[in-house]
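Hi L., both proteins are below.
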Amino acid sequence: MHRFTALGVAALATVLALAVAPANAAPDPLNPSNPLADTGPWRASTITTRANPELINYRAETDPVRKAALGRIALTPRVRWFANCASCNVSTVRQSVAAYVKDAQRGNPRALVQLAIFGLWPDGEVVRGKRPAMSWSMTRYQRWIKQIAAGIGTARVAIVLEPDLAISANHGNDGRTMPDPTPRTRMKMAAWAAKYLSQTLRREAIYLDAGSADWLYVDEAVRLLKASGVQYVRGFALGATHYDSVPANVAFAAKVSAALSRAGIKGKRAVLDTADNGTPFTWLQWNARWGPRFHATGDLFYQFDNTPTCRSRTETVCQTLGHRPTTRMVRRDARRYVDAYLWFGRGWRWMQQGGNDPYTKGRSIRMATYSPFR
């Protein structure tokens, strides 16, 4: 008993040290303009609301080993999502964003504030088995984006703009069904947001969602990004709701950046989600293992966005924590095409969504316990 307690305390001390240590470094000569490679701190959120169930679960846990596992998520700087939900609507989102900025900065204006803006699916991404058409007007969407910008103010920010924008690539082949019924509307809204935020904010690094290496083809991603305003922003984001490997997404980022450059849009870089790809797998691999069970039962425990967590260090096609957030790259191609690994996926939550559901705590513990990354 004492041995496990000591291990838990030691692990917790390591988590705490990592949480406050700088997650970034001086600019890499292969990517000298990287806006995320600054010495300002990256901090985990200390807000104890429904938007941060990771910290709530961590603080409430009394078992030291489980607490250390929960701390690996709760105390790691992560991207917070702001969605067009009832609690984050036009009238309240400015106040919510401003409170989050204040918490992330904690008096240091050089601190990096990380957020995702998710406003193109106000009715949910699937309604009664179908993709819904865009129900927000452009006017309302613009008001919402303007309120978010006002809440950010002069803060230094990294923004993942419209995760799952890749749905609007409007594909329907190769088993990738249920396309966006109003892709042009959503891409037009994303392009407006990209331009407005880049021109309004002072210290912004904005990355438009471009799916994942196992989702879109390069030409699909390029068409999507061009129509969605990539020319106005730093680059694009990969892996938000997928689990493909870092090498695969680095290679995809290089191809997309090169294709954009050939189209006259040069110098675009990527950020990669590494929150839940410690044991990477593709959609095809998920479909081979979990697809038949999900389609036969309809049980959301096996749905792609809710892929089961690993229960050992040898299991595959399951979710675990991946590489910690950082701008420090080892691979030469990553150093050239990727600004950072960030945690903007939320695989430890039920269906990757918000709120402190009954499953988040257990999923979090398993994802941390069986991750190959320490």
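That was the first. Here is the second:
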Amino acid sequence: MENKVLVETSARHVHLTEEHIAALFGAGHALTHKKDLSQPGQFACEERVTVVGPKGQIAKVIVLGPARPASQVEVSLTDARTLGVDAPVRESGDVAGSGACKLVGPAGEVELSEGVIAAKRHIHLTPADAEKFGVADKEIVGVKVTSEDRSLIFGDVVVRVSPKFAAAMHIDTDEANALHAKGEVYGEIVK
């Protein structure tokens, strides 16, 4: 798989600030580590919240750690329709002017005036990986993925390069379903 990158499905999830962790789960609460994610230092938590929009809600949405400087809700576009929220397609962390929602936890609620996005499909690479693939940070590429019956080429994939990353492409559940992704999936970067 030398010329290919692992393609992972990133399901709906929430990133929280320390302030919002306290509001949702109680003062002094620390996120409970459940399992490590593919990106170093990132982990899935035991904690869950309900995301509430004008049209509907989604219960038991996983919280990812560690705490972030700004709270953010990442959903698929199908989830956004269920919630009745405008979730622009953005890179993680780019929440200015994005969708609003309410988060409900066991100890309280938080109103987010912005922070709901559909994550732009992206590839995490180390500098060495980027050199190997012949790509640069913020470059937009395509990724060809072959599946049993729904092969496709994802366009508009942003390359993100950092020594803190592990090589992996992230797509949301809508995109994984379009691919009919099963098991371990790899894609080939195309320009």
